[in-house]
UniProtKB/TrEMBL annotation:
Keywords: Lyase. GO terms for molecular function: lyase activity. Its EC number is 4.2.1.-. This is D-galactonate dehydratase family member. Transmembrane segments: none annotated.
Amino acid sequence: MSPVGHAAQMHMDLATTNFGVQEWPGINDAMYEVFTGIPEMRNGYAYVNDKPGLGVELVESALKRYPAKEEIWHWTQYRMPDSTVLWP
């Protein structure tokens, strides 16, 4: 899940009266460089920021340090009904 998607999920959770558990995707250091305002985990509790909207902003200057890799990841495999594996 992207940091933006994670922030959206956290905001929805906090607005839901019967909310109970939120999975935490484990956000790496690179994500904290590329995005500001990402929800944080402290002492077992998740916190969102108090900025307007989702509060997550992209730091475009940091993107250059993390170019996209042109490779197909194993999770893009699709299993057909006959159990054969299909790659994009």
